[in-house]
Write a structure and sequence with these properties.
55% of the residues lie in helices and 16% in strands. The strands form four sheets. It has an eight-stranded mixed barrel. With 632 residues, it is an alpha/beta fold.
Length: 632
């Protein structure tokens, strides 16, 4: 048994785990409640194994210095802690993967091996079923020793079953590592069963404990690279665990209202320094700080009293009144702070998500928010439903395209129509178009919605006699960036035999303000292919005159603010004149009364769109409308 050195290595690995656990608590992303008990049982099991190995290798020294009863007692210590060590190790792996299923039949059988083998071990002094020691202190196996290994195998099977049954995508890598090293421990146990003199069983278990612990303490897997705060995946796992076990906790949510404009205006270095500065400040209140969303941090406290005692809300409220010094510059940042308790204020991830959405919708200048008085939770739930609806939006799910005719002031007739999206949902009812489009642009579903609208309009242009009336549809900024979308638009009109000057495309003015080179090139391709391009909602965004001059727009659409806003009315005539001098037509939207129509006509507008001339019409209504008017 000269390889007793393996037991020394195993003890060293366990001591290293203790060192890392005590000296680097920031690395411990899990509770590790079972870790002290696991290390203790593994340490005693390995130490007793080492003691007996030395007894057999150096019997003369031990016989002269250590009584025989100490060696016999040491054998019982080994049995008392070895099997429980395997059992605790199995529970430890399950805890690290957040596997706790009280309704599963397998966990109910978990204590059976210990319940059976424990009494047998107590009877061992009388029966020698597991082992006995001769007059020289030498260890000999008993006839039922194999039952001990069956118990070990039972715990291994139990761990494998639940790890595979309850595996989580966020914990995939740790699960693979744990499974691999659990297998390694089993191999070591089997080797020692057939070759008792090799003394590898405790070493492989100690090595497995060490590697499992270290693999679950990798900060790069669970933290944000720029702030060092725990990421949203770990936040979700912790919340799911606490919700499942009805564990109360308190969150302080910190919303940075100016995150987006600061991200766009500051350079990358300055913005990352600002994020790091805020993260460092927040961790002074709680060890558990998470990046829940790009603009929201969450501080976790065990209960409401602990949160109040930290004075985090009061201190953050005071701190929000002072700027942050970054690279010598003073940067103002508006914060909104909300404290919420689980389960009093929320008891599921869905409810917590409603709170986060409502916090993002909050327009109040208040810094400290009250959950019930300040947050619009119903609006947040509506936004969440809209997010789901927009992702599956289609004709089969309530999507409808309506058409609003456009009036030509000069020819005194309708010369085109805009295709508009309408959505009706059984829960939300009729959804406002601006709400749907805003959500769809945020989650990226606008590309699929616009593609669906284009398909519907192209079918209408192909299958019905519209008397040559052009239809214009929206083109999002995201679509302008994708050459495949541009090629599809050109290709589909060719295949369907649709004249391209009848299939017009509208780009929102807000999007055009930030057009990259690839988007500009794609717009040039569309114009060269014969499509008429409209600049939509002029006056709402930040377009510059260079884009008006350089990009091939045929029509510029002025939004309703030029009709109802006093300042817009003053600028209207000059804006229309500027557009026309640039060789484009001016179209004004939102004209609802005769007086408004007369006013914009007096300012020289070319086209008018609004309820005064026609409301948006369904397909059948639009076709009937065309039949009632002459277009020659």
């Amino acid at each position: 048994m000269c390889n007793w050195i393996l037991d020394l290595v195993g003890l060293a690995l366990l001591l290293l785990v203790v060192f890392l656990y005590v000296c680097k608590p920031r690395n411990q992303i899990h509770t590790h409640r079972l870790l002290p008990l696991l290390v203790l049982s593994a340490f005693l099991s390995t130490a007793s194994d080492l003691f007996y190995a030395l007894w057999e290798n150096y019997p003369l020294w031990f016989h002269s210095h250590v009584p025989l009863w100490v060696n016999i007692a040491n054998n019982y210590v080994y049995f008392l802690f070895h099997l429980p060590c395997i059992a605790i190790y199995s529970l430890y792996l399950l805890e690290l993967n957040h596997v706790r299923d009280a309704e599963d039949p397998v966990p109910k059988l978990f204590w059976v091996p210990l319940a059976v083998l424990g009494p047998l071990l107590l009877l061992n002094p009388l029966t020698s079923w597991f082992f006995h020691t001769d007059a020289d202190g030498m260890y000999h196996r008993g006839p039922l020793r194999f039952l001990w290994y069956i118990g070990v195998a039972g715990y291994v099977i139990h761990g494998y079953y639940l790890l595979l049954k309850e595996r989580d995508e966020h914990m995939r890598k740790p699960l693979i590592a744990q499974t691999f090293f659990l297998t390694f421990a089993v191999i070591g146990t089997m080797i020692q069963f057939f070759h008792p003199s090799l003394l590898v069983e405790n070493y492989t278990i100690d090595l497995s404990i060490f590697v499992s612990f270290v693999s679950l303490s990798r900060l790069e897997d669970v933290t944000e690279w720029n702030t060092g705060l725990f990421n949203r995946d770990i936040f979700t796992l912790w919340c799911e665990r606490d919700f499942k076990h009805h564990t109360p906790f308190t969150l302080v949510l910190v919303h940075m209202k100016d995150w987006k404009p600061l991200n766009e205006s500051l350079g990358d270095h300055a913005f990352h320094c600002l994020e790091k500065e805020i993260a460092t400040y927040l961790t002074s209140f709680s060890r558990w700080v998470y990046t829940v969303r790009d603009d929201v941090y969450a501080l976790w406290f065990a209960d409401h009293a602990t949160m109040v005692q930290s004075e985090v809300v009061r201190t953050l409220n005071e701190r929000s009144k002072r700027p942050w010094s970054i690279d010598g510059e003073q940067i103002g940042l508006r914060l909104q702070i909300l404290a919420a308790d689980s389960p009093r204020d929320f008891h599921s991830l869905a409810q917590l998500q409603d709170i986060l959405i409502a916090l993002g919708l909050q327009r109040s200048p208040k810094t400290v928010m009250n959950l019930r008085d300040d947050l619009q939770l119903e609006e947040a739930r509506k936004q969440k439903l809209l997010d789901i609806l927009s992702r599956k939006c289609s004709e089969e799910n309530g999507l409808e395209v309506v058409y609003q005719p456009v009036w030509d002031v000069k020819t005194q007739r309708f010369i085109s129509a805009e295709a508009l999206v309408r959505l009706t949902d059984p829960v939300l009812g009729k959804v406002r178009p601006d709400e749907l489009i805003a959500v769809a642009e945020r989650n990226g579903s606008i590309i699929r919605i616009d593609a669906c609208v284009r398909k519907i309009v192209q079918q209408l242009l192909r299958s019905n006699d519209l008397s040559g009336l052009p239809i214009h549809v929206n083109l999002s900024m995201a679509e302008c960036m994708q050459e495949e979308v541009i090629r599809d638009i050109i290709r589909s009109t060719s295949i369907l035999g649709i004249k391209r000057d009848r299939f017009c495309l509208e780009l929102t003015e807000t999007a055009s303000a930030y057009l990259p080179a690839v988007a500009k090139n794609n717009l040039q391709k569309l114009a060269s292919a014969g499509f008429h391009l409209y600049l939509d909602d002029f006056g709402q965004g930040q377009a510059n005159l260079d884009h008006l001059i350089m990009l091939p727009f045929s029509v510029v659409k002025l939004d309703r603010s030029f009709v109802i806003n006093p300042m817009g009315e003053k600028l209207r005539a000059n804006t229309i004149s500027l557009v026309k001098r640039l060789g484009m037509k001016a179209l004004i939207e939102g004209v609802e009364t005769k007086e408004e129509a007369e006013a914009v006509i007096a300012d020289g507008v070319d086209y008018i769109q609004g309820f005064y001339y026609s409301k948006p019409l369904s397909k059948d209504q639009f076709l009937a409308f065309l039949r009632a008017h002459t277009f020659d």
